[in-house]
């Protein structure tokens, strides 16, 4: 095939710049959203990976105890083991920086003499030795990483205010350090302290968080030997495993975002399909001529595919640039969400992965080729003389409408087969089902347009006269031009409605869950919402003082640790179950909550069998059931415990295992508390008691005292922030579709300019013509809404009952949200009317003769 | 082809009575005085018509002839109220078109003028019957009645068995006959035809022109036809020749 022939598609793309640009825009936006989200997610994870790598340094192995500290003596023992070449003790905590641009900061308490083999720190300036001396000899001194110092304008000799545990502390900066490889945890928000001063600051005298090791022998040998000699409960792990666990934790979150971002690309495909179809129709003479001159069917196919590919290449390329810009904005949102939900992440720098760029570009080109394939095949199959005329194409579509609807029904049937809720699996079949639902409803478009046009014709003819009559006829008679746009808008609307119904239902479920599952009048502790709050303790004097308070009827005590469990992190929580049994506060899938909690409280107090209750996401992820058993890692080694119940849980920072506090303390040997709930004698005095707590403890500690309402609002605020990205993604898909519908009507009216002029020449008034166009565009938009609402409703069921269950293990109750239906109807019909009226108004301007002038 | 055109429909506008009186009094139905039409293409002015004076009596069949670009179609468009002259006065059926507002112009085109185009200009979406019925529907007549009238007109032009076909399913001659039926269904005072045989073969052209002649002969229909085909012009009573926008004879 001669290259020269490719001038033809290029010329056609240039001939209709508006339509070409629309196709490019649709694909560019779709690619940009997909790439932006992928880059932001990858950058956030890369930042976490760098954090882990920076903290691990050259460590081969790490000793730790699940959800507990190690005794300091263990370091001395391990260091002397013949298998160990080097060992370094570490105390670690994520503190909060004080001040307006606060945020998390990683405190590493290290032994500078042991560190050299593991991590390198270059001190800035010439006073290196003096800085080390001060670092070791003076309490509350620290070295600050250069990036953090730069951001906050810190210098040697200055001070840094942090919140450690429940106290505000002032640290003296004795120097700044640089990591030679430029590798910093939390994007440089890191401070170093001598291990002893860090233990003092954090109230962990004689305790270490972990010990890093370098063995004398490579591979697993060192670990295997260590496991034999270490006390029970001490685990030997590879430091990089954290990254894997983190990736497992956020995998569903990332996959969901990626699939949602692909919706915009899917909508963009409709625009390409429409563009190439219009091109085939417009170029019927040219195709016929070329075929007459000897061009083969395959060459015709290639020419039309080339047209799609050019759009895909250009749109994809533009999408890459746009995607990088979008990723900069999305990075903040994704980082905030990961920090709210999972673990502190401070990704500030976008990591532009060439692999992701190529992947997004290839995806864009493939999407356009797939979209262009059907019309290109039609063009290639057509015989020399029989290339479609518009009217013939209309007839083809009308004839095929039922067959297409049959295909739609088949797609929905297949979606039904794929949409089987199977917990704990990546919801790929669920996502395929989602696309099949969208496709299924899209394929109903021709039959629905024919039905709507014909069905409403008698009524609208009576009501609006000729405008209603012709409007209905045009709706059912212009499917070659309008059906794809109607379908594209319906798909985008369907996703919007589905996501809105899912989020609305989820929000209501969470609201209900807060009411049913979280009892207590005041929640009091160092950091009620923070994901890094496991090592922030309530000062020991607080509980006895609160017990003395005559206004407090009961106290619920709470302790939480986070530990690796299989390939995930889980929260292990100890709580006062007798109090929960009295006031309520667990919503079980099966069984009576009071009976379960009382039985567990009694067993724990009296040293009965070890029992736990687990959250629904944990049960769904690993297939645990009520009455079954699980092996729980504890500081004293793994323990088999009975699963007494499964409760609904919407905490997003990971699945959780709960037990009575007595049992927790027996297993963990840990007397700390992270928070308490206060049950007041007089519930009308919540505000006064909050004020009293602030007054009593505010001067000494940083403790939050939230009312039940505050907690509910806080939870819903985190919820809304989390789903802001989702709404933004859907907004883009709708934007792409809206551009599609506007362009469709502009093209439709321009194509029909001659017909409109003819109607005027025959005596139709401008009002009649405008009315006709408005009836058509109004009905087309209404039809998009109807199909979108149908697809959205089915999709919302899929998202709620299948995909969420598979991805996160949550049971969401379906709450009907009529608002989204009403708002999208208004938006779409208004847009449809405007996008029809504007070109129609231009078309009825008095230049009839020019339009009617014979060719 | 035999043609027998249907009589006036019951709802025919009162205007017809007055027009018949005009015809009886041999008054001019169409009067163009000093009409010029200039188009602007950017900086360039193109004069399509220059100082044209023309008078067409009621019941007259006039052929306007001339080479391509001489202003024939423009003349027709001015008479049909499809565009306005740059200078001069166009009076049709006693109405000075320049004095008519948009709404009155619409009514003028709808009630007093019928147009037949070279490329038929049928709406592809509608069947032939619906196309023919359309002007009556635009007048506000019920669709059932308009369709009934359309069937009568289609019978007159020999298209009864084609009435449910869409335009692309019939031949050029059939399309033009349907277009003629559509132009006549409102019993217009003036029938304007713009190269009605331009897209037709010789035999079909003859059939169509016979229809025009019968219409003129039997109904006294005023017809202004633009054509460059001498055989078509031969059917007219009078030939008006245009050259470079001026009337030659």
CATH superfamily caption of chain B: P-loop containing nucleotide triphosphate hydrolases
Number of helices of chain A: 28
Report the mean per-residue pLDDT of chain A as an integer: 82
Provide the structure class of chain A. alpha+beta
Q: Can you count the beta strands of chain A?
A: 21
Shape type of chain A: elongated
> What oligomeric state best describes the polypeptide chains here?
heterodimer
Q: Write the element-wise H/E pattern of chain B from the N-terminal end onward.
A: HEEEHEEHEHHHEHEHEE
Helix content estimate of chain B: 25-40%
Number of helices of chain B: 8
Any overview of this molecule?
The complex is a heterodimer of chains A (855) and B (249). Chain A has 28 helices and 21 strands. Chain A has 855 residues and is α+β, with helices and mostly antiparallel strands. Chain A folds into 4 domains: 1-56 and 244-388, no CATH class; 58-238, no CATH class; 396-516 and 708-855, no CATH class; 527-702, no CATH class. In chain A, the strands form 3 sheets. A 9-stranded mixed β-sheet of chain A has the order 17-18-16-19-15-14-20-13-21, sandwiched between helices. In chain A, helix 9 runs antiparallel to helix 17. The relative contact order of chain A is 0.12. With 249 residues, chain B is an alpha/beta fold. Chain B is built from 8 helices and 10 strands. In chain B, a hairpin with a 2-residue loop joins strand 9 (238-243) and strand 10. Chain A binds chain B through residues 389-392, 461, 465-466, 469, 473-474, 477-478, 754-755, 758-766, 768, 846-850, 852-855, and chain B through 73-74, 77, 80, 82-84, 102-103, 106-107, 109-111, 115, 117-119, 121, 123-126, 134-135, 137-140, 143, 166-168, 182, 186, 194-195, 198.
């Amino acid at each position: 095939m001669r290259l020269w022939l490719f001038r033809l598609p290029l010329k056609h793309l240039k001939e209709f710049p508006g339509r070409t640009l629309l196709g490019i825009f649709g694909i560019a936006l779709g690619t940009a959203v997909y790439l932006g989200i992928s880059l932001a997610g990858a950058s956030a994870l890369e930042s976490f990976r760098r954090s882990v790598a920076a903290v691990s340094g050259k460590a081969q192995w790490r000793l730790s105890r699940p959800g507990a500290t190690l005794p300091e003596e263990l370091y001395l023992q391990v260091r002397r083991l013949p298998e160990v070449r080097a060992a370094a003790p570490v105390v670690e905590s994520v503190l909060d920086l004080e001040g307006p641009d606060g945020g998390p900061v990683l405190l590493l308490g290290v032994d500078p003499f042991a560190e050299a083999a593991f991590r390198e720190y270059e001190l800035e300036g010439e006073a290196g030795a003096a800085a080390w001396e001060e670092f070791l000899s003076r309490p509350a001194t620290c070295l600050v990483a250069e990036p953090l110092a730069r951001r906050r304008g810190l210098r040697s000799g200055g001070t840094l205010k942090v919140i450690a545990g429940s106290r505000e502390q002032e640290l003296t900066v004795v120097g700044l350090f640089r990591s030679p490889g430029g590798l910093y945890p939390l994007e440089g928000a890191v401070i170093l302290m001598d291990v002893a001063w860090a233990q003092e600051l954090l109230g962990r005298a004689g305790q270490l968080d972990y010990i890093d090791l370098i063995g004398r022998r490579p591979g697993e040998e060192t670990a295997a030997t260590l496991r034999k000699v270490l006390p029970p409960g001490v685990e030997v792990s590879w430091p990089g495993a954290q990254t894997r666990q983190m990736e497992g934790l956020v995998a569903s979150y990332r996959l969901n975002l990626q699939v949602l971002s692909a919706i915009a690309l899917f909508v963009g495909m409709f625009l390409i399909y429409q563009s190439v179809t219009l091109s085939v129709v417009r170029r019927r003479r040219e195709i016929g001529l070329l075929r007459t001159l000897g061009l083969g069917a395959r060459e015709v196919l290639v020419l039309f595919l080339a047209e799609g590919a050019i759009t895909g290449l250009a749109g994809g390329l533009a999408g890459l640039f746009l995607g990088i810009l979008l990723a900069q904005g999305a990075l903040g949102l994704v980082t905030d969400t990961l920090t709210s939900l999972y673990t502190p992440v401070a990704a500030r720098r976008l990591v532009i992965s060439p692999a992701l760029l190529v992947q997004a570009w290839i995806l864009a080109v493939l999407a356009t080729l797939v979209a262009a394939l059907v019309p290109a095949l039609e063009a290639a199959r057509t015989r020399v003389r029989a290339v479609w005329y518009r009217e013939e194409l209309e007839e083809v579509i009308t004839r095929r409408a039922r067959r297409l609807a049959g295909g739609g029904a088949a797609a929905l049937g297949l979606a039904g087969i794929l949409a089987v809720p199977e917990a704990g699996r990546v919801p790929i079949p669920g996502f395929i089902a989602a696309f099949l639902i969208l496709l299924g409803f899209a394929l109903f478009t021709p039959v629905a347009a024919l039905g709507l046009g014909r069905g409403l014709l008698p009524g609208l003819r009576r009501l609006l006269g000729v405008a209603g009559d012709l409007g209905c006829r045009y709706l059912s008679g212009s499917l070659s031009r309008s059906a794809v746009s109607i379908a594209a808008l319906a798909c985008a609307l369907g996703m919007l409605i589905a996501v809105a119904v899912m989020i609305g239902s989820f929000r209501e479920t969470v609201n209900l869950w807060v009411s049913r599952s979280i009892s207590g009048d005041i929640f009091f502790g160092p950091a009620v919402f923070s994901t890094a709050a496991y090592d922030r303790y309530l000062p020991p004097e607080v509980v006895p003082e609160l017990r003395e308070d005559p206004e407090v009827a009961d106290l619920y005590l709470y302790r939480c640790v986070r530990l690796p469990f299989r390939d995930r992190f889980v929260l292990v929580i100890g709580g006062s179950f007798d109090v929960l049994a009295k006031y309520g506060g667990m919503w079980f899938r099966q069984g009576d909550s009071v009976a379960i909690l009382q039985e567990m409280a009694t067993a724990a107090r009296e040293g009965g069998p070890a029992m736990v209750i687990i959250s629904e996401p944990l049960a769904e992820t690993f297939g645990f059931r009520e009455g079954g058993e699980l092996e729980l890692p504890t500081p004293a080694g793994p323990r088999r415990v009975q699963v007494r119940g499964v409760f609904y849980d919407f905490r997003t920072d990971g699945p959780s295992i709960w037990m009575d506090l007595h049992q927790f303390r027996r297993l963990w040997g840990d007397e700390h508390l992270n928070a308490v709930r206060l049950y007041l004698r007089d519930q009308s005095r919540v505000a006064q008691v909050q004020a009293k707590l602030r007054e009593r403890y505010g001067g000494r500690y940083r403790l939050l005292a939230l009312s039940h309402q505050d907690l509910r609002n806080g939870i819903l605020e985190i919820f809304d922030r989390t789903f802001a990205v989702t709404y933004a993604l859907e907004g883009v898909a709708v934007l792409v579709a809206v551009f599609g519908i506007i362009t469709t009507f502009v093209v439709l009216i321009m194509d029909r300019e001659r017909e409109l002029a003819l109607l005027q020449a025959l005596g139709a008034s401008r009002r009649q013509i405008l009315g006709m166009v408005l009836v058509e565009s109004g009905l087309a938009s209404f039809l998009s809404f109807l199909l979108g609402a149908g697809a959205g409703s089915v999709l919302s069921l899929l998202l709620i009952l299948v995909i969420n269950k598979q991805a996160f293990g949550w049971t969401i109750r379906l709450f009907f949200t009529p608002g989204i239906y009403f708002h999208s109807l208004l938006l779409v019909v208004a847009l449809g009317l405007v996008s029809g009226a504007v070109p129609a108004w231009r078309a009825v301007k008095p230049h009839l003769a020019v339009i009617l002038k014979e060719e | 082809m035999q043609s027998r055109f249907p009589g006036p429909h019951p709802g025919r506008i009162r205007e017809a009575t007055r027009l018949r009186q005009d015809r009886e009094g041999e008054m001019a139905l169409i009067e163009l005085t000093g009409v010029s039409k200039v188009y602007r293409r950017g900086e360039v002015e193109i004069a399509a018509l220059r100082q044209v004076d023309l008078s067409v009596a009621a019941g007259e069949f006039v052929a306007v002839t001339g080479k391509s670009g001489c202003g024939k179609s423009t003349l027709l468009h001015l008479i049909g109220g499809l565009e306005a002259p740059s200078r001069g006065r166009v009076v049709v059926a006693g109405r000075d078109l320049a004095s008519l507002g948009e709404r009155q112009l619409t009514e003028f085109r709808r009630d007093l003028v019928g147009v037949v185009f070279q490329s038929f200009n049928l709406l592809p979406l509608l069947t032939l019957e619906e196309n023919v019925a359309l002007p009556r529907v635009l007048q506000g007549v019920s669709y059932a009645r308009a369709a009934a009238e359309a069937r009568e007109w289609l019978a007159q032009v020999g298209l009864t068995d084609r009435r449910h076909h869409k335009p692309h399913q019939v031949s050029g001659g059939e399309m033009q006959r349907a277009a003629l039926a559509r132009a006549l269904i409102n019993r217009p005072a003036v029938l304007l035809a713009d190269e009605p045989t331009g897209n037709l073969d010789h035999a079909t052209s003859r059939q169509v022109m016979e229809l025009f002649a019968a219409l003129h002969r039997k109904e006294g229909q005023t017809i202004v036809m633009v054509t460059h085909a001498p055989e078509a012009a031969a059917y007219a009573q009078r030939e008006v020749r245009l050259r470079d926008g001026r009337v030659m004879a």
